[in-house]
Inverse folding.
Protein backbone atom coordinates (compact mmCIF):
# COMPACT_ATOMS: atom_id res chain seq x y z
CA UNK A 1 0.00 0.00 0.00
CA UNK A 2 2.67 2.43 1.00
CA UNK A 3 4.50 1.90 -2.24
CA UNK A 4 1.59 3.13 -4.28
CA UNK A 5 1.35 6.32 -2.20
CA UNK A 6 4.88 7.48 -2.54
CA UNK A 7 6.56 6.41 -5.75
CA UNK A 8 9.59 8.63 -5.14
CA UNK A 9 10.77 6.48 -2.23
CA UNK A 10 11.14 3.38 -4.34
CA UNK A 11 14.68 2.89 -5.63
CA UNK A 12 13.63 2.80 -9.25
CA UNK A 13 15.05 4.44 -12.34
CA UNK A 14 14.41 7.86 -10.75
CA UNK A 15 17.35 7.64 -8.27
CA UNK A 16 20.56 9.53 -9.22
CA UNK A 17 23.55 7.48 -10.40
CA UNK A 18 25.66 6.32 -7.51
CA UNK A 19 28.78 8.45 -7.16
CA UNK A 20 31.78 6.14 -7.28
CA UNK A 21 33.64 6.74 -4.03
CA UNK A 22 37.23 7.76 -4.36
CA UNK A 23 39.53 5.92 -2.01
CA UNK A 24 42.37 7.43 -0.04
CA UNK A 25 44.78 6.09 -2.65
CA UNK A 26 43.08 7.51 -5.73
CA UNK A 27 42.80 10.85 -3.93
CA UNK A 28 46.45 10.72 -3.06
CA UNK A 29 47.46 9.82 -6.59
CA UNK A 30 45.40 12.71 -7.92
CA UNK A 31 47.19 15.11 -5.59
CA UNK A 32 50.55 13.60 -6.47
CA UNK A 33 49.91 14.03 -10.20
CA UNK A 34 49.39 17.74 -9.68
CA UNK A 35 52.78 18.08 -7.96
CA UNK A 36 55.12 18.51 -10.92
CA UNK A 37 58.39 18.27 -8.97
CA UNK A 38 57.30 15.03 -7.35
CA UNK A 39 56.22 13.52 -10.67
CA UNK A 40 59.53 14.54 -12.23
CA UNK A 41 61.31 12.93 -9.28
CA UNK A 42 59.29 9.75 -9.72
CA UNK A 43 60.09 9.58 -13.44
CA UNK A 44 63.81 10.12 -12.79
CA UNK A 45 63.78 7.41 -10.12
CA UNK A 46 62.21 4.95 -12.55
CA UNK A 47 64.63 5.91 -15.32
CA UNK A 48 67.66 5.46 -13.06
CA UNK A 49 66.37 2.10 -11.85
CA UNK A 50 65.85 0.97 -15.47
CA UNK A 51 69.32 2.21 -16.46
CA UNK A 52 71.09 0.43 -13.61
CA UNK A 53 69.15 -2.82 -13.41
CA UNK A 54 67.93 -3.44 -16.99
CA UNK A 55 70.09 -1.46 -19.41
CA UNK A 56 73.39 -2.20 -17.67
CA UNK A 57 72.98 -6.02 -17.68
CA UNK A 58 71.96 -5.88 -21.38
CA UNK A 59 75.02 -3.77 -22.19
CA UNK A 60 77.12 -6.26 -20.25
CA UNK A 61 75.76 -9.04 -22.46
CA UNK A 62 76.81 -7.13 -25.56
CA UNK A 63 80.39 -7.15 -24.32
CA UNK A 64 80.78 -3.94 -22.34
CA UNK A 65 82.78 -4.60 -19.20
CA UNK A 66 83.16 -2.30 -16.20
CA UNK A 67 86.42 -3.90 -15.09
CA UNK A 68 88.25 -4.37 -18.40
CA UNK A 69 91.34 -2.15 -18.27
CA UNK A 70 92.88 -0.56 -21.33
CA UNK A 71 95.95 1.42 -20.29
CA UNK A 72 96.50 2.69 -23.82
CA UNK A 73 93.18 4.50 -23.66
CA UNK A 74 93.14 6.29 -20.29
CA UNK A 75 90.95 9.33 -19.64
CA UNK A 76 89.18 9.17 -22.97
CA UNK A 77 86.82 12.17 -23.20
CA UNK A 78 83.04 12.02 -23.48
CA UNK A 79 82.00 10.61 -26.82
CA UNK A 80 84.76 8.03 -26.88
CA UNK A 81 85.09 4.65 -25.24
CA UNK A 82 82.74 1.74 -25.77
CA UNK A 83 79.92 3.24 -23.73
CA UNK A 84 80.31 6.74 -25.10
CA UNK A 85 81.05 8.43 -21.79
CA UNK A 86 84.82 8.06 -22.00
CA UNK A 87 87.16 6.05 -19.80
CA UNK A 88 88.68 6.39 -16.34
CA UNK A 89 92.24 6.41 -14.99
CA UNK A 90 92.72 2.74 -15.92
CA UNK A 91 90.98 2.95 -19.27
CA UNK A 92 87.82 1.31 -17.95
CA UNK A 93 84.53 2.24 -19.58
CA UNK A 94 82.96 5.02 -17.55
CA UNK A 95 79.34 4.34 -18.51
CA UNK A 96 79.53 0.75 -17.30
CA UNK A 97 81.43 1.79 -14.16
CA UNK A 98 78.84 4.35 -13.20
CA UNK A 99 75.89 2.04 -13.93
CA UNK A 100 77.36 -0.91 -12.03
CA UNK A 101 78.34 1.43 -9.20
CA UNK A 102 74.74 2.59 -9.17
CA UNK A 103 73.56 -1.00 -8.93
CA UNK A 104 75.55 -1.43 -5.74
CA UNK A 105 74.53 1.91 -4.24
CA UNK A 106 70.86 1.35 -5.00
CA UNK A 107 70.92 -2.30 -3.99
CA UNK A 108 72.41 -1.48 -0.58
CA UNK A 109 69.91 1.34 -0.01
CA UNK A 110 66.86 -0.58 -1.18
CA UNK A 111 67.73 -3.80 0.66
CA UNK A 112 68.48 -1.85 3.84
CA UNK A 113 65.20 0.04 3.49
CA UNK A 114 63.26 -3.22 3.09
CA UNK A 115 64.91 -4.55 6.25
CA UNK A 116 64.11 -1.25 7.97
CA UNK A 117 60.45 -1.48 6.99
CA UNK A 118 60.19 -5.10 8.14
CA UNK A 119 61.91 -4.53 11.46
CA UNK A 120 60.10 -1.26 12.05
CA UNK A 121 56.68 -2.73 11.38
CA UNK A 122 57.27 -5.78 13.58
CA UNK A 123 58.83 -3.90 16.49
CA UNK A 124 56.77 -0.72 16.28
CA UNK A 125 53.58 -2.63 15.57
CA UNK A 126 53.99 -4.83 18.62
CA UNK A 127 54.97 -1.91 20.84
CA UNK A 128 52.03 0.17 19.65
CA UNK A 129 49.42 -2.57 19.75
CA UNK A 130 50.48 -4.04 23.09
CA UNK A 131 51.01 -0.56 24.51
CA UNK A 132 51.15 -0.05 28.26
CA UNK A 133 54.30 -0.62 30.21
CA UNK A 134 55.82 -3.11 27.77
CA UNK A 135 55.25 -0.85 24.80
CA UNK A 136 56.77 2.08 26.65
CA UNK A 137 59.79 0.05 27.68
CA UNK A 138 60.27 -1.07 24.08
CA UNK A 139 60.25 2.57 22.99
CA UNK A 140 62.70 3.61 25.71
CA UNK A 141 65.17 1.16 24.18
CA UNK A 142 64.64 2.75 20.75
CA UNK A 143 65.13 6.23 22.24
CA UNK A 144 68.37 5.14 23.86
CA UNK A 145 69.71 3.69 20.61
CA UNK A 146 68.61 6.79 18.70
CA UNK A 147 70.74 8.92 21.01
CA UNK A 148 73.85 7.08 19.79
CA UNK A 149 75.95 8.62 17.03
CA UNK A 150 74.67 6.84 13.92
CA UNK A 151 77.73 6.80 11.67
CA UNK A 152 80.14 5.74 14.41
CA UNK A 153 77.95 2.82 15.44
CA UNK A 154 77.38 1.75 11.84
CA UNK A 155 81.13 1.81 11.13
CA UNK A 156 81.88 -0.37 14.16
CA UNK A 157 79.01 -2.73 13.39
CA UNK A 158 80.10 -3.16 9.77
CA UNK A 159 83.68 -3.94 10.79
CA UNK A 160 82.49 -6.71 13.09
CA UNK A 161 80.13 -8.28 10.56
CA UNK A 162 82.44 -8.11 7.56
CA UNK A 163 84.95 -10.60 8.95
CA UNK A 164 82.24 -13.16 9.55
CA UNK A 165 80.59 -12.61 6.17
CA UNK A 166 83.96 -13.19 4.49
CA UNK A 167 84.26 -16.51 6.27
CA UNK A 168 80.74 -17.45 5.22
CA UNK A 169 81.42 -16.49 1.60
CA UNK A 170 84.59 -18.56 1.55
CA UNK A 171 82.58 -21.47 2.95
CA UNK A 172 80.09 -21.25 0.08
CA UNK A 173 82.89 -21.05 -2.46
CA UNK A 174 84.94 -23.92 -1.02
CA UNK A 175 82.23 -26.33 0.04
CA UNK A 176 79.46 -25.75 -2.47
CA UNK A 177 81.65 -24.75 -5.37
CA UNK A 178 79.81 -21.51 -6.11
CA UNK A 179 81.43 -19.12 -8.52
CA UNK A 180 83.75 -17.05 -6.39
CA UNK A 181 83.27 -13.79 -8.30
CA UNK A 182 79.54 -13.45 -7.87
CA UNK A 183 79.57 -14.67 -4.26
CA UNK A 184 82.30 -12.22 -3.26
CA UNK A 185 80.59 -9.41 -5.13
CA UNK A 186 77.39 -9.96 -3.23
CA UNK A 187 79.09 -10.78 0.07
CA UNK A 188 80.70 -7.38 -0.06
CA UNK A 189 77.34 -5.61 0.17
CA UNK A 190 75.95 -7.56 3.07
CA UNK A 191 77.90 -6.16 6.02
CA UNK A 192 77.24 -2.58 5.01
CA UNK A 193 73.56 -3.27 4.33
CA UNK A 194 73.03 -5.02 7.64
CA UNK A 195 74.95 -2.36 9.54
CA UNK A 196 72.93 0.49 8.03
CA UNK A 197 69.60 -1.30 8.47
CA UNK A 198 70.56 -2.53 11.95
CA UNK A 199 70.52 1.01 13.28
CA UNK A 200 68.48 2.69 10.58
CA UNK A 201 65.18 1.05 11.46
CA UNK A 202 64.76 2.92 14.76
CA UNK A 203 62.92 5.95 13.38
CA UNK A 204 60.69 3.67 11.33
CA UNK A 205 59.88 1.74 14.51
CA UNK A 206 58.89 4.98 16.18
CA UNK A 207 56.66 6.08 13.32
CA UNK A 208 54.95 2.69 13.12
CA UNK A 209 54.45 2.64 16.87
CA UNK A 210 52.72 6.00 17.04
CA UNK A 211 50.54 5.06 14.07
CA UNK A 212 49.65 1.68 15.57
CA UNK A 213 48.99 3.21 18.99
CA UNK A 214 46.56 5.79 17.65
CA UNK A 215 44.88 3.28 15.33
CA UNK A 216 44.32 0.72 18.05
CA UNK A 217 42.40 3.36 20.03
CA UNK A 218 39.95 3.97 17.21
CA UNK A 219 36.39 2.75 17.04
CA UNK A 220 36.74 0.40 14.10
CA UNK A 221 39.47 -1.54 15.88
CA UNK A 222 37.36 -1.62 19.00
CA UNK A 223 34.50 -2.95 16.88
CA UNK A 224 36.77 -5.62 15.43
CA UNK A 225 37.83 -6.55 18.94
CA UNK A 226 34.30 -6.76 20.24
CA UNK A 227 33.45 -9.02 17.29
CA UNK A 228 36.02 -11.38 18.77
CA UNK A 229 38.55 -11.23 15.96
CA UNK A 230 41.97 -12.64 16.72
CA UNK A 231 44.93 -10.32 17.42
CA UNK A 232 46.56 -11.54 14.27
CA UNK A 233 43.56 -10.70 12.12
CA UNK A 234 43.14 -7.26 13.68
CA UNK A 235 46.82 -6.50 13.17
CA UNK A 236 47.05 -7.70 9.58
CA UNK A 237 43.61 -6.76 8.25
CA UNK A 238 42.81 -3.57 10.12
CA UNK A 239 45.88 -1.90 11.56
CA UNK A 240 48.56 -2.70 9.00
CA UNK A 241 46.69 -1.50 5.89
CA UNK A 242 45.86 1.75 7.63
CA UNK A 243 49.43 2.65 8.44
CA UNK A 244 50.79 1.96 4.97
CA UNK A 245 50.69 5.69 4.22
CA UNK A 246 53.27 6.88 6.76
CA UNK A 247 55.37 3.76 6.13
CA UNK A 248 55.52 4.40 2.37
CA UNK A 249 56.35 8.07 2.88
CA UNK A 250 59.11 7.34 5.34
CA UNK A 251 60.53 4.46 3.29
CA UNK A 252 60.78 6.69 0.21
CA UNK A 253 62.68 9.27 2.22
CA UNK A 254 64.84 6.57 3.84
CA UNK A 255 66.24 5.35 0.51
CA UNK A 256 68.11 8.58 -0.33
CA UNK A 257 69.46 8.90 3.20
CA UNK A 258 70.77 5.32 3.01
CA UNK A 259 72.30 6.01 -0.43
CA UNK A 260 74.04 8.93 1.22
CA UNK A 261 75.30 6.87 4.19
CA UNK A 262 76.60 4.18 1.84
CA UNK A 263 78.40 6.76 -0.27
CA UNK A 264 79.85 8.55 2.75
CA UNK A 265 81.25 5.32 4.19
CA UNK A 266 82.60 4.19 0.83
CA UNK A 267 84.14 7.63 0.30
CA UNK A 268 86.16 7.44 3.51
CA UNK A 269 87.11 3.84 2.73
CA UNK A 270 84.93 2.08 5.32
CA UNK A 271 82.16 0.93 3.00
CA UNK A 272 82.21 -0.99 -0.25
CA UNK A 273 85.60 -2.55 -0.90
CA UNK A 274 87.40 -3.04 -4.23
CA UNK A 275 87.01 -4.60 -6.77
CA UNK A 276 83.41 -3.55 -6.15
CA UNK A 277 82.58 0.03 -6.56
CA UNK A 278 79.67 2.29 -5.73
CA UNK A 279 78.86 5.91 -6.46
CA UNK A 280 80.65 7.02 -3.30
CA UNK A 281 83.77 5.09 -4.26
CA UNK A 282 83.64 6.41 -7.84
CA UNK A 283 83.33 9.99 -6.62
CA UNK A 284 86.29 9.49 -4.30
CA UNK A 285 88.42 8.06 -7.13
CA UNK A 286 87.18 10.79 -9.44
CA UNK A 287 88.16 13.49 -6.95
CA UNK A 288 91.71 12.14 -6.96
CA UNK A 289 91.98 12.55 -10.71
CA UNK A 290 89.77 15.59 -11.25
CA UNK A 291 92.67 17.80 -12.32
CA UNK A 292 93.60 15.42 -15.14
CA UNK A 293 90.07 14.72 -16.23
CA UNK A 294 86.93 16.21 -14.78
CA UNK A 295 84.47 13.72 -16.27
CA UNK A 296 85.74 10.98 -13.98
CA UNK A 297 84.37 13.01 -11.07
CA UNK A 298 81.50 14.77 -12.80
CA UNK A 299 79.57 11.78 -14.16
CA UNK A 300 79.15 9.80 -10.93
CA UNK A 301 78.66 13.02 -8.94
CA UNK A 302 75.88 14.25 -11.22
CA UNK A 303 74.10 10.91 -11.31
CA UNK A 304 74.42 10.55 -7.53
CA UNK A 305 73.07 14.03 -6.78
CA UNK A 306 70.28 13.59 -9.32
CA UNK A 307 69.21 10.36 -7.64
CA UNK A 308 69.11 12.02 -4.22
CA UNK A 309 67.06 14.92 -5.62
CA UNK A 310 64.62 12.58 -7.33
CA UNK A 311 64.00 10.39 -4.29
CA UNK A 312 63.64 13.38 -1.96
CA UNK A 313 61.20 15.24 -4.21
CA UNK A 314 59.18 12.06 -4.71
CA UNK A 315 59.14 11.42 -0.95
CA UNK A 316 58.11 14.98 -0.14
CA UNK A 317 55.42 14.79 -2.79
CA UNK A 318 54.11 11.51 -1.41
CA UNK A 319 53.96 13.05 2.05
CA UNK A 320 51.96 16.00 0.77
CA UNK A 321 49.68 13.67 -1.18
CA UNK A 322 49.08 10.96 1.40
CA UNK A 323 49.04 13.08 4.51
CA UNK A 324 47.82 16.58 3.63
CA UNK A 325 47.50 17.54 7.28
CA UNK A 326 51.13 16.80 8.09
CA UNK A 327 52.52 18.95 5.30
CA UNK A 328 52.56 22.60 6.21
CA UNK A 329 50.95 23.92 3.07
CA UNK B 1 64.24 24.19 34.73
CA UNK B 2 66.55 22.41 37.11
CA UNK B 3 64.58 19.23 36.52
CA UNK B 4 65.05 19.46 32.75
CA UNK B 5 68.80 19.98 33.17
CA UNK B 6 69.12 17.14 35.68
CA UNK B 7 67.19 14.72 33.49
CA UNK B 8 69.36 15.68 30.52
CA UNK B 9 72.50 15.05 32.60
CA UNK B 10 71.13 11.69 33.73
CA UNK B 11 70.35 10.76 30.14
CA UNK B 12 73.85 11.78 29.04
CA UNK B 13 75.48 9.63 31.69
CA UNK B 14 73.47 6.59 30.59
CA UNK B 15 74.11 7.17 26.90
CA UNK B 16 77.84 7.67 27.43
CA UNK B 17 78.03 4.55 29.56
CA UNK B 18 76.21 2.43 26.97
CA UNK B 19 78.18 3.95 24.13
CA UNK B 20 81.54 3.24 25.73
CA UNK B 21 80.47 -0.27 26.72
CA UNK B 22 79.25 -1.06 23.21
CA UNK B 23 82.38 0.41 21.62
CA UNK B 24 84.68 -1.38 24.05
CA UNK B 25 83.38 -4.81 23.09
CA UNK B 26 82.75 -3.87 19.46
CA UNK B 27 86.33 -2.81 18.67
CA UNK B 28 87.62 -5.98 20.29
CA UNK B 29 85.15 -8.07 18.28
CA UNK B 30 86.53 -6.74 14.99
CA UNK B 31 88.49 -9.62 13.46
CA UNK B 32 92.23 -9.06 13.57
CA UNK B 33 94.77 -7.78 16.01
CA UNK B 34 96.15 -4.28 16.51
CA UNK B 35 99.72 -5.51 16.25
CA UNK B 36 99.32 -8.01 13.42
CA UNK B 37 99.81 -5.36 10.77
CA UNK B 38 103.23 -4.36 12.01
CA UNK B 39 106.20 -5.60 10.14
CA UNK B 40 108.15 -8.58 11.37
CA UNK B 41 106.52 -9.08 14.72
CA UNK B 42 107.18 -12.56 15.96
CA UNK B 43 104.48 -14.21 18.07
CA UNK B 44 106.61 -13.54 21.16
CA UNK B 45 106.86 -9.85 20.38
CA UNK B 46 103.14 -9.66 19.78
CA UNK B 47 102.49 -11.35 23.11
CA UNK B 48 104.85 -8.90 24.77
CA UNK B 49 103.06 -5.95 23.19
CA UNK B 50 99.68 -7.32 24.24
CA UNK B 51 100.93 -7.82 27.78
CA UNK B 52 102.35 -4.28 27.81
CA UNK B 53 99.00 -2.77 26.86
CA UNK B 54 97.07 -5.15 29.11
CA UNK B 55 95.32 -6.82 26.18
CA UNK B 56 96.27 -10.33 27.33
CA UNK B 57 93.90 -10.18 30.29
CA UNK B 58 90.34 -11.52 30.10
CA UNK B 59 87.83 -9.08 28.62
CA UNK B 60 85.87 -8.25 31.81
CA UNK B 61 89.14 -7.37 33.58
CA UNK B 62 90.19 -5.17 30.66
CA UNK B 63 86.79 -3.50 30.77
CA UNK B 64 87.00 -2.75 34.48
CA UNK B 65 90.57 -1.52 34.07
CA UNK B 66 89.43 0.85 31.33
CA UNK B 67 86.88 2.51 33.61
CA UNK B 68 89.42 2.58 36.44
CA UNK B 69 91.86 4.45 34.23
CA UNK B 70 89.17 6.77 32.91
CA UNK B 71 88.20 7.71 36.45
CA UNK B 72 91.82 8.79 36.93
CA UNK B 73 91.58 10.84 33.73
CA UNK B 74 93.79 8.43 31.80
CA UNK B 75 92.57 7.62 28.29
CA UNK B 76 95.47 5.21 27.71
CA UNK B 77 98.17 5.07 25.05
CA UNK B 78 97.55 4.95 21.35
CA UNK B 79 98.23 1.44 20.05
CA UNK B 80 99.02 2.49 16.50
CA UNK B 81 101.00 5.67 17.11
CA UNK B 82 103.61 4.47 19.56
CA UNK B 83 104.48 6.74 22.42
CA UNK B 84 101.49 9.05 21.95
CA UNK B 85 98.78 9.32 24.53
CA UNK B 86 95.17 9.30 23.39
CA UNK B 87 94.52 12.39 25.49
CA UNK B 88 97.30 14.29 23.68
CA UNK B 89 95.94 13.27 20.29
CA UNK B 90 92.44 14.43 21.23
CA UNK B 91 93.63 17.68 22.77
CA UNK B 92 95.51 18.45 19.55
CA UNK B 93 92.67 17.52 17.22
CA UNK B 94 89.75 18.93 19.20
CA UNK B 95 90.55 22.67 18.77
CA UNK B 96 90.84 22.12 15.01
CA UNK B 97 87.48 20.36 14.82
CA UNK B 98 85.91 22.89 17.19
CA UNK B 99 86.98 25.88 15.07
CA UNK B 100 85.83 24.20 11.87
CA UNK B 101 82.53 23.13 13.42
CA UNK B 102 81.74 26.50 14.99
CA UNK B 103 82.47 28.45 11.83
CA UNK B 104 80.41 26.18 9.60
CA UNK B 105 77.55 26.17 12.10
CA UNK B 106 77.64 29.97 12.19
CA UNK B 107 77.67 30.19 8.38
CA UNK B 108 74.85 27.66 8.24
CA UNK B 109 72.76 29.78 10.62
CA UNK B 110 73.46 32.98 8.68
CA UNK B 111 72.35 31.35 5.43
CA UNK B 112 69.69 28.92 6.60
CA UNK B 113 67.55 30.85 9.06
CA UNK B 114 66.84 33.92 6.87
CA UNK B 115 66.13 31.56 3.97
CA UNK B 116 63.57 29.71 6.05
CA UNK B 117 61.95 32.93 7.29
CA UNK B 118 61.67 34.30 3.74
CA UNK B 119 60.19 31.02 2.53
CA UNK B 120 57.54 31.10 5.27
CA UNK B 121 56.66 34.77 4.70
CA UNK B 122 56.14 34.20 0.98
CA UNK B 123 54.42 30.89 1.51
CA UNK B 124 53.52 29.10 -1.75
CA UNK B 125 55.01 31.85 -3.89
CA UNK B 126 58.11 31.76 -6.01
CA UNK B 127 60.32 32.92 -3.13
CA UNK B 128 59.13 29.95 -1.09
CA UNK B 129 59.65 27.46 -3.92
CA UNK B 130 63.11 28.72 -4.80
CA UNK B 131 64.20 28.78 -1.16
CA UNK B 132 63.05 25.19 -0.72
CA UNK B 133 64.76 24.06 -3.93
CA UNK B 134 67.96 25.70 -2.70
CA UNK B 135 67.54 23.91 0.62
CA UNK B 136 67.00 20.62 -1.17
CA UNK B 137 70.18 21.29 -3.15
CA UNK B 138 72.04 21.77 0.13
CA UNK B 139 70.84 18.34 1.26
CA UNK B 140 71.42 16.52 -2.04
CA UNK B 141 74.69 18.04 -3.23
CA UNK B 142 76.68 16.61 -0.39
CA UNK B 143 80.07 17.53 1.05
CA UNK B 144 82.06 15.05 -0.97
CA UNK B 145 80.68 16.49 -4.19
CA UNK B 146 80.88 20.12 -3.08
CA UNK B 147 84.39 19.86 -1.62
CA UNK B 148 86.13 18.85 -4.86
CA UNK B 149 84.08 21.43 -6.79
CA UNK B 150 85.27 24.19 -4.46
CA UNK B 151 88.84 22.98 -4.64
CA UNK B 152 88.75 23.07 -8.41
CA UNK B 153 86.72 26.21 -8.96
CA UNK B 154 87.79 28.46 -6.08
CA UNK B 155 91.11 27.37 -4.63
CA UNK B 156 92.89 26.54 -7.89
CA UNK B 157 92.13 29.58 -10.05
CA UNK B 158 92.29 32.16 -7.26
CA UNK B 159 95.47 30.75 -5.73
CA UNK B 160 94.72 32.80 -2.62
CA UNK B 161 93.57 29.71 -0.78
CA UNK B 162 95.31 26.38 -0.38
CA UNK B 163 93.58 23.46 -2.05
CA UNK B 164 94.02 21.41 1.10
CA UNK B 165 95.96 21.40 4.33
CA UNK B 166 95.94 23.21 7.64
CA UNK B 167 98.87 25.62 7.73
CA UNK B 168 97.47 29.07 7.05
CA UNK B 169 94.59 30.61 8.94
CA UNK B 170 92.67 30.92 5.67
CA UNK B 171 92.70 27.15 5.32
CA UNK B 172 89.59 26.97 7.47
CA UNK B 173 87.45 28.74 4.87
CA UNK B 174 86.86 26.09 2.21
CA UNK B 175 86.12 23.18 4.56
CA UNK B 176 83.72 25.24 6.63
CA UNK B 177 81.94 26.60 3.56
CA UNK B 178 81.62 23.02 2.30
CA UNK B 179 80.21 21.88 5.62
CA UNK B 180 77.82 24.79 6.15
CA UNK B 181 75.47 24.04 3.25
CA UNK B 182 74.04 20.88 4.74
CA UNK B 183 73.43 22.66 8.05
CA UNK B 184 71.91 25.66 6.28
CA UNK B 185 69.55 23.40 4.34
CA UNK B 186 68.16 21.65 7.41
CA UNK B 187 67.94 24.95 9.32
CA UNK B 188 66.04 26.55 6.44
CA UNK B 189 63.48 23.74 6.36
CA UNK B 190 63.07 23.70 10.14
CA UNK B 191 62.82 27.49 10.39
CA UNK B 192 60.24 27.57 7.60
CA UNK B 193 58.17 24.90 9.33
CA UNK B 194 58.37 26.66 12.68
CA UNK B 195 57.55 30.03 11.17
CA UNK B 196 54.51 28.68 9.29
CA UNK B 197 53.26 27.11 12.50
CA UNK B 198 53.59 30.35 14.42
CA UNK B 199 52.16 32.57 11.69
CA UNK B 200 48.92 30.59 11.73
CA UNK B 201 48.45 31.21 15.46
CA UNK B 202 45.68 33.41 16.80
CA UNK B 203 47.93 35.93 18.53
CA UNK B 204 49.65 36.72 15.25
CA UNK B 205 46.27 37.36 13.65
CA UNK B 206 45.43 39.66 16.57
CA UNK B 207 48.66 41.56 16.06
CA UNK B 208 47.90 41.87 12.36
CA UNK B 209 44.39 43.08 13.13
CA UNK B 210 45.79 45.74 15.46
CA UNK B 211 47.81 46.97 12.51
CA UNK B 212 51.27 46.07 13.74
CA UNK B 213 53.73 46.28 10.81
CA UNK B 214 54.86 42.94 9.40
CA UNK B 215 58.51 43.40 10.29
CA UNK B 216 57.61 44.11 13.88
CA UNK B 217 55.28 41.10 14.06
CA UNK B 218 58.17 38.90 12.99
CA UNK B 219 60.84 40.39 15.21
CA UNK B 220 58.68 40.89 18.32
CA UNK B 221 56.21 38.02 18.22
CA UNK B 222 56.97 35.32 15.71
CA UNK B 223 60.73 34.90 15.57
CA UNK B 224 61.44 33.46 18.99
CA UNK B 225 58.93 30.60 18.99
CA UNK B 226 59.51 29.98 15.28
CA UNK B 227 63.20 29.32 15.81
CA UNK B 228 62.66 26.64 18.44
CA UNK B 229 62.73 23.61 16.09
CA UNK B 230 65.94 24.96 14.57
CA UNK B 231 67.53 25.42 18.00
CA UNK B 232 66.57 21.89 18.98
CA UNK B 233 68.38 20.71 15.85
CA UNK B 234 71.48 22.84 16.53
CA UNK B 235 72.54 20.87 19.61
CA UNK B 236 72.93 17.45 17.98
CA UNK B 237 74.13 19.08 14.74
CA UNK B 238 76.94 20.79 16.61
CA UNK B 239 78.17 17.54 18.10
CA UNK B 240 77.77 15.69 14.80
CA UNK B 241 79.60 18.31 12.80
CA UNK B 242 82.55 18.31 15.18
CA UNK B 243 83.21 14.59 15.13
CA UNK B 244 81.28 13.61 12.06
CA UNK B 245 83.16 15.66 9.51
CA UNK B 246 85.12 12.60 8.38
CA UNK B 247 84.46 13.43 4.76
CA UNK B 248 85.44 17.07 4.81
CA UNK B 249 88.53 16.33 6.88
CA UNK B 250 89.57 13.70 4.33
CA UNK B 251 89.04 16.00 1.36
CA UNK B 252 90.82 19.03 2.80
CA UNK B 253 93.39 17.12 4.89
CA UNK B 254 92.24 18.73 8.11
CA UNK B 255 93.98 17.24 11.18
CA UNK B 256 90.75 16.92 13.17
CA UNK B 257 89.04 14.20 15.16
CA UNK B 258 87.29 12.53 12.23
CA UNK B 259 90.59 11.50 10.67
CA UNK B 260 91.75 9.97 13.94
CA UNK B 261 88.54 7.98 14.15
CA UNK B 262 88.87 6.55 10.64
CA UNK B 263 92.56 5.74 11.21
CA UNK B 264 91.75 4.27 14.61
CA UNK B 265 89.20 1.90 13.07
CA UNK B 266 91.42 0.78 10.20
CA UNK B 267 94.47 0.23 12.43
CA UNK B 268 92.36 -1.26 15.25
CA UNK B 269 93.66 1.30 17.71
CA UNK B 270 91.26 0.28 20.51
CA UNK B 271 92.24 3.03 22.92
CA UNK B 272 92.06 5.82 20.36
CA UNK B 273 88.61 4.77 19.09
CA UNK B 274 87.28 4.39 22.63
CA UNK B 275 88.71 7.72 23.72
CA UNK B 276 87.17 9.51 20.76
CA UNK B 277 83.79 7.86 21.28
CA UNK B 278 83.81 8.71 24.99
CA UNK B 279 84.77 12.29 24.23
CA UNK B 280 82.09 12.47 21.55
CA UNK B 281 79.42 11.17 23.91
CA UNK B 282 80.26 13.82 26.51
CA UNK B 283 80.35 16.51 23.85
CA UNK B 284 76.97 15.44 22.54
CA UNK B 285 75.56 15.64 26.07
CA UNK B 286 76.94 19.15 26.54
CA UNK B 287 75.61 20.29 23.16
CA UNK B 288 72.14 18.91 23.92
CA UNK B 289 72.23 20.55 27.32
CA UNK B 290 73.12 23.91 25.77
CA UNK B 291 70.26 23.65 23.30
CA UNK B 292 67.93 22.66 26.16
CA UNK B 293 68.96 25.75 28.11
CA UNK B 294 68.50 27.92 25.03
CA UNK B 295 65.01 26.48 24.58
CA UNK B 296 64.17 27.20 28.20
CA UNK B 297 65.09 30.82 27.69
CA UNK B 298 63.08 30.99 24.48
CA UNK B 299 59.93 29.33 25.74
CA UNK B 300 58.23 30.90 28.77
CA UNK B 301 56.16 27.74 29.27
CA UNK B 302 59.28 25.68 29.82
CA UNK B 303 60.82 28.39 32.01
CA UNK B 304 57.97 28.36 34.48
CA UNK B 305 57.43 24.62 34.67
Amino acid sequence: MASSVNPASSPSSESPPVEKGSSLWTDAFFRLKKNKLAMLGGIIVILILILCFIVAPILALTGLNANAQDLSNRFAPIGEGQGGLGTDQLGRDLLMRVLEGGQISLLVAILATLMTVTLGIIYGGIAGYVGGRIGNAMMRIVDGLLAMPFLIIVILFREIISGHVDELARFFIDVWGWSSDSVLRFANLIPLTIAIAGFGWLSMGRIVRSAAASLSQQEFVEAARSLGLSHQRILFRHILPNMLGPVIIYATLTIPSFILYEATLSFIGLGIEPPNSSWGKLIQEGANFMETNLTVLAIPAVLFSLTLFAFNFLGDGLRDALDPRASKD
Amino acid sequence: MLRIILSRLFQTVIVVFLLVTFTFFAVRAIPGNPFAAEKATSPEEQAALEAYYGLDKPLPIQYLNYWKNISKGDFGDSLAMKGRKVSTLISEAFPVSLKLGLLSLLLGMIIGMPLGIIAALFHNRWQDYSAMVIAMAGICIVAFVLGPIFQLSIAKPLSLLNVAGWQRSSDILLPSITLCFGVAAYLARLTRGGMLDVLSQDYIRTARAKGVPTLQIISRHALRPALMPAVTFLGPAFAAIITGSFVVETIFLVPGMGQHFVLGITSKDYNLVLGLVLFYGILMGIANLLSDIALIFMDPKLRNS
In short: Chain B has two domains: 2-71, 90-304. Chain B touches chain A through 49 residues (CB under 8 Å).
